[in-house]
Amino acid sequence: MYAMERQQLIERELREVGRVSVVDLARRFDVTTETVRRDLDRLEGLGTLRRVHGGAVDIGRASTAESSVTERRERKSDAKRAIAAEAASLLGPDFRGSIFLDAGTTSAALAALLPATLGGGIGGVEVVTHSLEAAHVLAGEERVSLTTIGGRVRGVTAAAVGAHTVRTIGQLRPDIAFVGTNGLSAGFGLSTPDPDEAAVKAAIIQSARRVVLLADSAKFGEELLVRFATLDELDVLVTDTEPPADLAEALADADIEVRVA
């Protein structure tokens, strides 16, 4: 395969996924990692991508870049549905107690599965969320009792944020929280571009008895502007592929259960 062909395929991967790994590309193209690094250096010189540790990201993926909820809903949709199904299996039909659902497209996919997952009983499960999308999915559903938390709604995430939201979450103690993230790395932990979103996510994690992170593989290695949790604050990671070696080691060191959908 010619260098130009490889570079075109790398550009396509960046458009579809947003991130590429040197090791994965070398294995796919059956070339050395040095060859892949030269390809990435050339593409960076052309302004196509930005080099990061272990690979590269799309040029638009800065530490403050954030896609709208509509754009994220279409990205890796199959993986998100699989993650949601695996997360739902942590509950089962006999679950009784309280659930906090974070904002995010994977959390919304989980919300859609909750009524069937929780069986045919009426009541017994309290779902709390600050996500308009998750609330819309569950509104009127008899098998759960739904509580929404208000605040200033960010259009990009369709979720409430602000001091009132954080204060209200701090007065809760849900049995289990399902949390999303924009970035997940071994060194930096969990991160997101917006300080207000970070404050809400941190409050959710601090309040919950058990914390389950829902994160597809596109989040691996990403480090956004604001860290809202360290790895040792998690109990379970549900994802779609095995984490890379450095992240897998850090997760194991933090005694986090990893479930691959």
Mean pLDDT: 89
Low-confidence blocks of residues: none
CATH C-level class of the largest domain? Alpha Beta
Strand content: 15-25%
The CATH topology of the largest domain: Rossmann fold
How would you explain this protein's 3D organization?
With 261 residues, this protein is α/β, with parallel strands linked by helices. It folds into 2 domains: 3-58, Arc Repressor Mutant, subunit A, CATH 1.10.10; 69-260, Rossmann fold (3-Layer(aba) Sandwich). Helices cover 40% and strands 23% of the residues. The chain has 10 helices and 15 strands. The strands form 4 sheets. A 7-stranded parallel sheet has the order 6-5-4-9-12-14-15, with helices on both faces. It has a 3-stranded antiparallel sheet with strand order 1-3-2. A 3-stranded antiparallel sheet has the order 10-11-13, with helices on one face. Strand 14, helix 10 and strand 15 (257-260) form a beta-alpha-beta unit. The longest helix has 15 residues, at 3-17.
